[in-house]
Amino acid sequence: TQLLEQSPQFLSIQEGENLTVYCNSSSVFSSLQWYRQEPGEGPVLLVTVVTGGEVKKLKRLTFQFGDARKDSSLHITAAQTGDTGLYLCAGALPDSGTYKYIFGTGTRLKVLA
Amino acid sequence: DSGVTQTPKHLITATGQRVTLRCSPRSGDLSVYWYQQSLDQGLQFLIQYYNGEERAKGNILERFSAQQFPDLHSELNLSSLELGDSALYFCASSVMDSKTRNTIYFGEGSWLTVV
To answer: Which of B53, B89, B102, B111 best probes binding to A when mutated, by most A CB atoms within 10 angstroms?
Structure first.
């Protein structure tokens, strides 16, 4: 059974602080996606990382894919209240000509003013 | 806007009833995935279709079924509904054969409440 462990599960921080969310697995992924989800809405894609060691930046968000493509991190600099939400990582695994996606359990972030 | 369209957005129905949720994937995407998300829970994979054929099954109950039509839209049928079926149901689509991105894009979900 492929698992994607995400940590921490919950995070409550003050506006302006930095934070890092981690996704770890024993599986090697073809790619890994990060999503942000607000209550009652669908997950919105933030980034896809494909190459081992890849680093992508999206304004104050920095995403890193591990060298072995088994893990990833999301770092937020100077968090804002608008960053509040559920962050999900998902790894894509080849499966008989298609892909299956393994989702992490999510990190629920609350940024306080 | 992800390009994945789901209808209805909200649905309230009684126990024992049957409902159909509809999904239109992004233009050009051949693969459709269905997920269930209960309150404060993670995404549970239900089923995947590719170009009209079932490709993978997850934790989908026997009371639930899905299909993908020639125009690539998909429907998720939920029957003999129980209170515990109340959840957000998401459809996602992807260009399955992409060698570079393998990304799935989610619709906004259908919120089902069983009373």
So the answer is: B102
Strands A10-14 and A107-112: parallel
Query: A98 vs B45: CB contact, 8 Å cut-off?
Result: no
What does chain A come to in residues? Answer: 113
Between residues 84 and 103 of chain A, which touch chain B (CB distance below 8 Å)? 88, 90, 92, 95-96, 98-101, 103
Confidence (pLDDT) at B17: 97
By C-alpha distance, which of A56, A9, A51, A1 is closest to A25?
A1
Residue A5, helix vs strand vs coil: strand
Q: Is the dihedral of CA B49, B113, A41, A63 positive or negative?
A: negative
| Average pLDDT score, chain B | 91
Mutate to test the interface with A, among B7, B40, B43, B48 (most CBs of A within 10 A): B43
Locate tokens 């492929």: which residue?
A2
Whether B38 contacts B57, CB under 8 Å? no
CA distances from B60 to A20, B17, B78, B106 (A): 33, 18, 10, 19
Of B74, B72, B24, B20, whose CA–CA distance to B47 is shortest? B74
Q: Which of B31, B48, B103 faces A31 most closely, judged by CB atoms?
A: B103
Kind and range of the H or E element at B20?
strand B19-24
Q: What is the pLDDT of residues B32-55, one digit of tens each?
A: 999 999 877 788 999 999 899 999
Taking only the tens place, the pLDDT of each residue in A42-69 is 999 999 999 999 999 999 999 999 999 9
